[in-house]
Design brief:
homodimer; mainly alpha; DNA-binding; Arc Repressor Mutant, subunit A; 11 helices
Chain lengths: ~200, ~200
DNA sequence: CCCATCTCGGACACAACGTCCAGCAATGTC
DNA sequence: GACATTGCTGGACGTTGTGTCCGAGATGGG
């Protein structure tokens, strides 16, 4: 890995930009934020911004680049749970989102951009796929993908809804709802899939 | 209703714009299309465009404004089905999307804008809510909303995935998968299902 | 045939993006 | 502590797209 620790100035600049962005997102929503806004608030030259990031998007996603690894480690770390319960990411994520509710609402909520949602989708897809393979030992690849898509869509949908609501539901409650809604269908679907191998003759 | 049939010129212009937009969406994707592109292809003055629509978005959604009513009528019309099977929109929609696959992929696919997805979300939410109320007689309003969110998210997610794939799955197959994945969870979550009709297709 | 209405076309102001460069400042190293 | 390296500044510039405005001309409906 190319891990030469960068210049202090670089760190400073990047942090300033990241924090400015987050503040602005909370105020105006991501889409309404311009590069001008960001460098203005961060007290950084416009050209400096482009020296670091090609895009507004790059800045945002750069902040998230650490997260996937973190989650992956968390999920692997808790093998005790991971061994018996599928989708352990769910409750963790709900809690995390609850802590940073305002930011998450702005980023993953229903009236936000798609960028972060898409990123989240990608990360979750891998986790879910791994869990499904572990718990169901499916043979049909396409059925697996359909199930992954189903679980992730349902999850992100519920998450977005929950964030966007002045709701008294706790992370635990919404997590329970998620499991109750998703697990039966998956069990039935992948069970049938292995025995019956849905669909065309391969 | 204010249904004075408008001037021929108006009709002509609007149709030209709509068709130009669709063509351009198929070529470049919605986001990449500019108002300039549209009026250019439609051979319409720029100012004329703004005399009809405030936005690129308005033009697009204007085209869809007829659709919800159509679906609602379809759904109400087929009371024979509607009486025994929930979510009759599903297969219809899958078929419709299959017919216009390229356009739908550009509009509802996973790398498309959110506009149409959101519109679709709204329309489907109402349909799904109605069906859930009819089939489950729920008392808890919040549980109902959670279930609606779940069903719609799962549906739109599967639809998007299916469109974006060079997949040999027919509308019927993906519809069956959708029902198999969604119905058990809903039944369990909302309590007693009045009719336990788990996807009998034909 | 005439009037109302629509369309044209081009000019304009504006907002944001992304690039470039010369001069200055901070940094890590020896 | 001196110095070469690297990063930052700040503002000018070109570009693209948006949305508005208006007078002149074309076209439709009664």
């Amino acid at each position: 890995m190319n891990r030469e620790r960068p210049d202090r100035r670089v760190i400073r600049t990047r942090r300033a930009l990241r924090e400015a962005l987050i503040g602005l997102i909370l105020e105006k929503g991501y889409d309404a934020v311009t590069v001008g806004d960001i460098v203005d608030r961060a007290d950084v030259g416009r050209s400096t911004f482009y020296a670091h990031f090609v895009d507004k998007d790059a800045l945002l996603l750069g902040g998230f680049s650490a997260l996937p690894t973190l989650w992956a480690e968390e999920s692997r770390g808790s093998d005790a749970d991971g061994g018996t319960i599928p989708f352990t990411f769910s409750l963790k994520m709900f809690r995390h989102a609850d802590d940073q509710r305002r930011l998450f609402r702005a980023l993953v909520g229903q009236r936000s951009g798609v960028l972060v949602q898409r990123q989240l989708d990608r990360v979750l897809s891998d986790l879910v796929r791994a869990d499904l393979e572990r718990f169901h030992a499916v043979g049909d690849d396409r059925a697996l993908e359909v199930a992954v898509r189903f679980v992730v869509s349902a999850y992100v949908g519920l998450l977005g809804w929950w964030l966007e609501h002045p709701t008294p539901a706790t992370p635990e409650e919404i997590d329970r709802a998620f499991r109750a809604l998703v697990l039966p269908g998956v069990a039935g679907f992948l069970g049938v899939a292995t025995a019956n191998s849905t669909g065309r003759s391969t």
